[in-house]
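Record type: monomer structure entry
Structure origin: computed from sequence
Chain ID: A
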Amino acid sequence: MKKMPFSLEAEQSVLGAVLIDERVMQRALQRLVKEDFYKVSHVHIYDVMETLSTRKIDLDYATIISVLEERNLVDEVGGVDYLLELANMLPTAENVDSYIDIVKNKSLARQVIQMATNIAEQTYEQRLDIGELFDFTEQQLFEVTKQRKSAEFRAIGTVVNEVIAGIEKHKNKEGFIVGLPTGYMDLDDRTLGFQDGNLIILAARPSVGKSAFAINLAYNIAEKNKHVAFFSLEMSAEQIVTRMLSTVSSINNQSLQSGNINSRQWRQVEHAATLLSRLNIYFDDASSSNVGEVYTKCRQLKQEEKLDFVVIDYLQLLTGTGNYGGNRVVEVSEISRRLKNLARDLGVPVLALSQLSRNVESRTDKRPNMADLRESGSIEQDADIVMFMYRDDYYNPETTTAPNIVEISIAKNRSGATGKFDLLFVKDYGSFRNVGYRGDDE
C-alpha cells in the first residue's frame, strides 16, 4: 500500500525552529495551518503554538507543556523530551522558510489525493448526473488551488517595482488605453479600457438594449484580434450572429431574417459574414447553465490561450452550485462572487448583464440606480464597474428631445471616473455609435 506524502524532517524542523526563535511562528502562520502537518503529535504541538501566539503568550517549553497538560496530550506528543529533540533538529532557524514550503507542498499533495478519491467515489456511486459531477470536480479542485495560491505578505518595495514596471510597459503604448478598447470613446476615457480581473455589470430594464450593447462590445473587442467567450442564456448563437450581421452590414435585422434583400444588400451581407468569420468569438448558448460550468469552460479556453474577454447574458439566468433552500438572494450572491473570482483567477475582464427590479418603473425619474439591482446587494459589492442604461424614448415614445439616444451611466468605477455619456442607438441594425465626445469635461 502506498504511503501518503509527508516529510517528517520538514515538520520537525519547522516546530524546532519555532522553539529556537518564536518570531518564526509569524512566518509559519502566513503559510501553514495545523492540518498541514501529517504526524498527529505535530498537529497537536503546532495547534498549541498557534494558540499561545494568538494569546500573545511567550512560546517556550513551559508554556507549551502547560497547554498540553490542560488538553491531556503530553504523553501523546512525547513530553518535554520530544520538544527538546525538536529544538536540536536545527542549529539555527535561518532556513525555516524552505521547510515551511515542504510541509505545505506535502499537505497539498495529500489534499490532491483526497480530492481524487472523493471524485472517484462520487463517480462510482452515480448519485450525481454528469453536469453535477463536473461541477463537484471543479469545486474540489478550486478548494485545493485556492490554498496553493495563498501567499505571504509582499513588502511594499516589491509591489512598487511591479507597479513601476507596469507603468513603463503602458508608457510605450500609443494612446491612453491600457485595457481592452471598447470602441466607445467616453467609456474608454473613464475606464482606460476594460481591465483584466474586473467584473463589469451592465444593467437595464428589459428591451432597453443591453444585449445589443453587449454584442457591440464583443464585436469591437474581437475586432482587435482578441478572444471573446459569449455565454447567452436567452438567445441562441444563430440569433446573436444574425444581429451581428445586421450591425456590420447595416441591413435591417428583420429583412435579414425574412431574406427580403436585394443583390446589393446581399453583397453587404456576404462581406459582413467574411469579416465576422475571421473573429475569435466563442458562443455557449446552453439555455440552462450554472456558474461552475461557466468557470470550467472559461478556464479551458484560457489554458488554450483563447480567452481575453467574457460576456454573460445575463447574470440572473445563471444558477449557483449549491442548495440554497429557495433563497434566491443567497444564490445570486454566490454567482456574483464566483464571477468576480473568475475575472481575477483567469486575469480577464468579465461583463455580466443584469436585470433591474421593477421599482424603477414606479418613480417619476426612471433613471436606474444601485438600489435597483435585482435580487442581491452583493452584485454592487463584487463589481468593479457598474453601468446603467437609460433610454428616454423607451418610456416616452413620442419624445423629440432625445430619440434613439441611450444614456450610459457609470455609477461605480473602482479604479476610475464615474459619470454619464450618450450613445446613438440605431435600433434597425442593433448598432451603438459614438456621439459627441465628452472627455473629461464633466
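Annotation 1: The domain at 173-434 is CATH 3.40.50.300 (Rossmann fold).
Annotation 2: The first strand starts at residue 199 and ends at 204.
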